[in-house]
Amino acid sequence: MPVAGLVITFCEDEGLRACAVEALAADPRITLGEAQRGRKLPLVTDTETLEEQQELWRALVNVPGVLTLDLAFEDFSDVGDFSSDELPSRWNKQPRHPEDDHGSA
Amino acid sequence: MDRREFLRFTAMTAATAAASRVALAQAPGPTVALDPALAQRMGADVRWDKAPCRFCGTGCHVQVGVRGGRVVAIAGDQLAPVNRGLLCVKGYHVGLALYGSDRLTRPMLKRNGRHEPITWVEAVDIIARRIMARPASFAVYGSGQWTIPEGFAALKLVKAGLGTNLIDPNARLCMASAVTGFLSTYGVDEPAACFDDLDRADAVVLWGNNPAEMHPVLFSRIVDRRARGERVDLIDIGTRRTRTTAFAQHFLQFKPNTDLAIANCIAQQLLASGRHDPRFVERFCNFRQDTAQPSLNGAPLTFAQYRQRVARYTPEYTERISGVPARDLRMLADLFADRSKRIVSLWCMGMNQHTRGTAINRMVHGVHLLSGHWGRPGDGPQSLTGQPSACGTVREVGTTANGLPGGLVVTNAEHRHEAEELWHLPPGRISGTPGHHAVELWRRFSTAAAEGGDISTIWVQVTNPGQSLPNVNKLFKPSRALPDKFLIVSDVYPTATTRDADLILPSAMWVEKNGMTGNSERRTQQWFKMVDPPGEARPDVWQTLAVAHRLFELGHPGMRDRDGRFLFAMTRPDGTEVPAWDWAHFHDVNVDEKLFEDYRRFTSIKHKNLAPYGEYVRHRGLRWPVVQDRAGAWRETRYRFVEGEDPFVAAGRGVQFYHSVTRDDKALIWFHDYEPPPESPDAEYPFWLCTGRVLEHWHTGSMTMRVPQLRRAMPQAYLEMNREDAQRLRLQDGQRVVLETRRGAITLPVWIEGRGAPPPGSVFVPFFDERVPINELTLEAHDPISKQPDYKKCAARIRPAADPERR
Lengths: 105, 807
Fold this sequence. Notes:
The complex is a heterodimer.
Chain A: E1 3-10, H1 14-25, E2 30-32, E3 40-46, H2 50-61, E4 66-75
Chain B: H1 3-23, H2 36-41, E1 47-52, E2 61-67, E3 70-76, E4 108-111, E5 114-117, H3 120-133, E6 138-142, H4 148-162, E7 167-169, H5 176-186, E8 203-207, H6 211-214, H7 216-227, E9 233-238, E10 250-253, H8 259-272, H9 278-284, E11 285-289, E12 299-301, H10 303-310, H11 315-322, H12 326-337, E13 343-347, H13 349-352, H14 357-371, E14 380-383, H15 390-398, E15 403-404, E16 408-409, H16 413-422, H17 438-445, E17 457-461, H18 465-468, H19 472-475, E18 486-491, E19 503-506, E20 515-518, E21 523-527, H20 540-554, E22 570-571, E23 577-578, H21 591-600, H22 613-618, E24 622-623, E25 627-628, E26 634-635, E27 667-671, E28 687-692, H23 708-713, E29 719-721, H24 723-728, E30 736-741, E31 744-752, E32 762-766, E33 794-800
Parallel strand pairs in B: 6-7, 6-17, 8-9, 8-13, 9-10, 11-27, 13-14, 17-18, 18-19, 28-32, 29-31
Antiparallel strand pairs in B: 1-2, 2-3, 4-5, 4-19, 11-12, 15-16, 20-21, 21-24, 22-23, 25-26, 28-33, 29-32, 30-31, 30-33
Helix pairs in contact in B: 3-20, 4-15, 4-20, 4-21, 5-14, 8-11, 8-12, 8-14, 11-12
C-alpha cells in the first residue's frame, strides 16, 4: 500500500483549476493539502498497489488544468512487490535480426 | 494514529513543505546537519540521513529512511539548495534501485564459457598477477559515477603506482567537449556560473538540450517561476521537438551539425549592427581560431580578423545552411544584443556528442563573451552533466588519460613534479606520456596484439561499455574472440558488459558505502554508508586498495613510495597503521576521508580549493573554490572569476580570468567555420539517426530497468518517427522495423511522434534498453580535440521487419 506526497502545479486558468481540484477531491485515494501561493497544491496518494499508484499518477497529469506533477515523498516500506518479476533479462532477449537481416550481429 | 495515518501525515507534511518552498522560491539555509522535522515525523524505528541522488549531474539531495538494515523510504531533502525538497521520478525511486532481485553477490570467473563463483582472495590475486605480467598493457576504464575517493584511488593506482596513464572514463563519451571548451576559453575547466542563475535569468537558451526529461528538477526550477507570475522565456534550439519544446516560446529547428553556423550568425549580427559589448570585449577577451591541425590553444586572431571571418554568416546565409528561418536568427541576435536582459545558455549531450563539440562549446561561450552576457547572476553559459560525478571525479580528480588531480596534467613536467612531491614518489615515477582516450583504448583492446592491439586487460568500474560505447561491434565485441584479452568488470547488476566479462566483481552501490560526488555546478557532496551491500558485494574503492596491496605483496616496485611505504598506507590518529586493504579492517577507518584528504592537497594549485571532509558532512554540498574567511569559516563560491564572489579575483578587476590561456587574464572568443558532419544521409541511408535518453531511465538502464515503476512507465526502447515518414513507408504505430546503418542493424517498434517529434527524415532511439542495442549502429567518429564521439547524427535506413509477429 504505497503512500506518496506530491506537489501539483496548476495552469493559470482559474476555471480549469477549480474543476481540477474538484476532480481530485472526488477520488478517495487522494488527500488534498492546503494550496500554496503560486498555484502549488500538496497532496497525498494512497493506493493498494504500485501499479495502481502509477495509473493514478498518469491520470493526474492528464487532468485538465494540471501543468506538472512533482514528487516529494515516497514510502515503500510495506510494499512487497518491488523485487520485480519482469526484470530486463538478457536471457529473454528478443531475436534482434529477422530472417532478412544482413548479418551484422 | 496508526502507521498508515502516520505515513499519510508524513507524506502531506513533506509535500506541503516542498510546495511552500517552491511556491515562495525559498532557498534553504546552507549549513545544517539533518532535517530535524523529518527525523521526528517518522519515528524512532526509521533512521534518516542525507545523500545526493545516485543518478544525474543535478545533484539533488534525498533523505534516505532506513529500517532494519533496509532502505524503506525516500524523501526530497527540504534543506538541499539544489532541489528544495523535490525529486524527479527517478530520484524518488532511487532507493528501489538497490533491490533488484539479480544483484551480483559473488566474484565470478569465466571458465569454459560459464561464470563460476570464486573467492575474493582468488579474484584479487588474478588481477594482480595479470598486472605483474604485463603492466604496460593493463588499463582502467572508469566512470563519472565513480565516487571521488573511488576515482582518486584508481588514478593513484595507475599513475602513481603503475607509472602509466592507461586510465580513461566513460565521461569521455558525455562531456569531454565541454571540458576542452572551458579549457580553451578560460584556461581552466568547469562552469563559472551555477544553478542560482536559473532563478534569475530572463531568458534561457537551450542548445540541443532537453532538461524537461534529462534534468527535470532544474527544469521545474525554471518553469515554476512562471507559476509564480515571473516571466522567463525559453528558446529551444534543437533538431527535434521534445517535452522541453512544449514549454518554450520559440523553437528553432536546425539541421544536424549546423549549430556552429547559428552561433556564428549571432556574432555576425551583433558585430554588423555594433550591438556587441565593446567594453567587455576590450577589457576581458582575446580572439582565436583553429590551426591546420586542431589543438587546444589554436592560433591568435585579431578582432578585425574575427569580424571578417563571421561576416558571411548573415541570417539569410545561415538559414540556407541550418534551415532556421532568418527571422528567428534575428530574434536570437536581438536577444543577445539586449543587455538589460539576463540570459542563461544551457547545454549537455547535444553540443558535446558532436564531432565539432569543442568548437560549438567555445562558440557558445564566445556569444556570451562578445555580447557581455557574462558574470552577472542569471547571465552566463552553464553546461550540464549527465552523471553524478562527471565533474567531481573525472574533471576534478582527473581520472583521464592525461589528467592528474586538481586540474593538473601529465604532459606538464612541473605538474608531474608537484604530484610526485605530494605523493612522496621517486622522481620520474609519473609518466609524461598520456594514455589512450576511451575510443582508442577500446579499439586497441579489440585489436589483436600482433596488429597493434597493445591493451590486453581492462578493468571496468561503474559503467557498461558493452552497451554504451559507440559502434560496439567494432570497439567492444571483437575483443571477446581474441586470445589473451581479459575483461574485468566491477558492477552491481548483470549487464551487457558483465555478460562478456572474464572476471566479474560484485560491487556495493550508493548508500551501501560511503561516498562523495561533485555535480554540474562545482558542488562537492558527501554521504555515509547506511545499509550493508548484499552477499559478498564490496565497494569499488576497497577492490582497488586490495589489488594495490596484492601487487605490493608480489613486489611491484610502484606500490611503494620513496621511503618504501605502501602507496595507500592509512593510519589511525595514534599513528598505527590500518590494513584497510583487508576487508576485515576496511571499516576500521573512514577510507573515504583518508583518500579525500590526500586528494584535497592538490586542489589549491589551480584554485579549485576544497574544504576539509568534515565540512561536507555538515552541508548539502559546497561549491568550490571553498576557502576560509578571516573568521575561519569555510565559504563556497557561486561565481568564478567575478570580483566579490570569487576569492581569487583581485580587487578592482571586476572580472579576472586568472587562468587565461594568453596569460593576460582574458578569455578567448573562438571562430570556427561550419563544416558538414562526417556522415550524412544519402540515397542509400536516407535518415538522420539521433540517440539519447528518456525521463524514466538512466543511461543504459542497468539500475532503472530494475525498478518496476520506471520499467512499467517506459518498458522498452523504440524508434521515434515523424508521421509523414511513417505514412510514406506504410508503417503503423508499434510495427517492428529493421533500423540499419553502415555498422549494424537492429529490430525495434516504431513510435510515431511519441514523446518527441523528429522532423521528416530524422529518427530517434533511446539507448537505455539492453535488448535494443542501438550502439551497434552508432558512429565512433569523434571530436579531434576532446576525442568525444558523436552519438547524435549518422545515416540510417528503415524497412519493415520480415516477421511482424516476432515481438
